[in-house]
Write a structure and sequence with these properties.
2 copies of one chain form a homodimer. Chain A is an alpha+beta fold. The first copy, chain A, has one domain: Glutaredoxin (3-Layer(aba) Sandwich), CATH 3.40.30. Chain A contains 10 helices and 4 strands; from the N terminus they run βαβααααααααββα. Chain A has a 4-stranded mixed beta sheet, with helices on both faces. In chain A, helix 1 links the parallel strand 1 and strand 2. In chain A, helix 1 packs parallel to helix 10, helix 5 packs across helix 8 and helix 5 packs across helix 9. The longest helix of chain A is centred in the N-terminal third of the chain and has 18 residues. Chain A is globular and about 45 Å long. Chains A and B meet through helix 4 and strand 4 of A and helix 4 and strand 4 of B.
Amino acid sequence: MTIQFWFEFASTYSYPAAMRIEPLAAAHGVPIDWRPFLLGPIFASQGWNDSPFNLYPAKGHYMWRDLERRCNGYGLPLLRPSRFPRSGLLPARVALAAGGEPWLPAFVRSVYHANFAEDRNISERGVVAELLDKLGLPAAQILARSESEMAKEGLRAQAEEAQRLGIFGAPSFIVGGELFWGDDRLEDALGWHARYAG
Amino acid sequence: MTIQFWFEFASTYSYPAAMRIEPLAAAHGVPIDWRPFLLGPIFASQGWNDSPFNLYPAKGHYMWRDLERRCNGYGLPLLRPSRFPRSGLLPARVALAAGGEPWLPAFVRSVYHANFAEDRNISERGVVAELLDKLGLPAAQILARSESEMAKEGLRAQAEEAQRLGIFGAPSFIVGGELFWGDDRLEDALGWHARYAG
């Protein structure tokens, strides 16, 4: 049994989850099923054309402070992005096209770090190419693959599966059919595995 | 320095917070400032005429399951109310009129237990009277006081103060000017007190 990790590169609380999940899951002996997806279609189906943190300012104000406190607690750098949310479409396509390749977790972390610790525009091809380069990967080839019809269709299918599974936000975790929402439920999700997956 | 505990009797996650806060705060040596309030005016100002858990069904479906898991973990009974949300207006007026009386915490817990463990209609005068009776309190006198203009005005002022403080949901905790939202932030709020209140 795996932990499905549903993440959206634009999502604030997906950032600490992405940085934390690998050692925690390894400590529990749980393989991670990395599931990049886009929240946009799900938010649109709820009548939102923007992040709820922008639509509801009191909640948004709180979220940034809460995120800051939590990142401090985790020892993670946080630099509030000058633009929020930033489209995660391009890196999500790259992540999806990467499938189970061993560099996927490092790529995911590098994208989150660029967006939330360096305020870089992760929707730009040049930025993503540089992140791939730094990991010693063939950026041009990977970006070309991510722009294939198959990768685009794969990401659409992923968003549909998320909705079918009852996912409404990110990060989300699924363990043994149980949905957990939010970075602050990561430990609960892994605890669920320990109790029920035997 | 106190922990302000902002709670709404209709709010699901306020239930475990209300049942848990007294021993936890006592263990930290932090006095509790009990703040009953109504979320209705705040939700209305965000364009909602119902609980977001009803307006956004995927989120609502998740919330009930998450609440069930958490109540199980805390050893708290949970019986999903046949009507949600139930107006918390009457018990909120009673709680506000009670001010700092020593029976307030027990009354608060009895109202949450009635709503979320016994599916009783806490907006009915007879139900609230019975809860007061069971605590050995003069129900008729207390209910009469809660219906005074002063109690009504006090609750309106309380909702305005909540908004001024940036509160957008319940339960909320304020410690040393820091806002924490959600039952799952209760320990963080008390930890904040320990670190920063010296």
